[in-house]
Amino acid sequence: MAERDAVRTDAENAAGPPLKRYAFMLRLRPGAATAYEEAHHAVWPEMLALLKRAGISEYSIYRRDELLILALRAADFESTWQKIESDPINTRWQHAMAPFFAPIEGLRPGERFPMMEEVFYLA
Predict the structure, then answer these.
(1) Which of 43, 77, 99, 113 registers the highest number of CB atoms within 10 A of its CB?
(2) Which listed residue (40, 53, 92, 112) is catalytic?
(3) What are the tens digits of pLDDT across the range 27-36?
(4) Contacts by residues 108-117 (CB-CB < 8 Å, ≥ 24 positions apart)
(5) What is the three-class DSSP state of 7?
(6) Which domains are seen in the chain, by residue range?
(7) H-type alpha helices, the chain
(8) What's the pLDDT at 14?
(9) How far is CA 47 from CA 10, 13, 70, 108, 121, in A?
(10) How many Å apart are CA 48 and CA 41, to the nearest integer?
């Protein structure tokens, strides 16, 4: 999975596990970019709270045409994502976002998303 050595910042809770960097790709359906961006300018407060509660920090989404690169920090991607996907708030959010996404391609065994491998990081 695409993760690098854990890095701590002064702002992180010293008692919690160190956070790792993760990134993955998704693809939008042609013509969905504007609506997708509008939805992400107004992410539901309860969805933002869920992401934080699950342990995600510094979550960014980058777009070039229909290609999305999603980058975040978490202690463990799989356990964090399990917390998110089991929550009814996320179920509602995913239902609202589903029309924007093209089918996921290129998954490797055991992946839920096409994960990126970090090859360089300058702290």
Answers:
(1) 77
(2) 40
(3) 999 999 999 9
(4) 111/1, 112/78, 112/81, 113/24, 113/25, 113/26, 113/70, 114/24, 114/25, 114/26, 115/1, 115/2, 115/22, 115/23, 115/24, 115/77, 116/2, 116/23, 116/24, 116/25, 116/69, 117/2
(5) strand
(6) 20-100 (3.30.70.100)
(7) 33-40, 45-54, 77-85, 88-97
(8) 52
(9) 26, 22, 16, 28, 29
(10) 12
Residue 1: per-residue pLDDT: 45
Residues sharing a CB contact under 8 Å with residue 67, sequence separation 6 or more, in sequence order: 25, 27, 28
> What pTM value is reported for the model?
0.85
40 has catalytic annotation: yes
Residue range 33-75, pLDDT digits in tens:
999 999 999 999 999 999 999 999 999 999 999 999 999 999 9
- How far apart, in whole angstroms, are the C-alpha atoms of residue 73 and residue 31? 29
Residue 59 half-sphere exposure toward CB, CA atoms < 13 A: 16
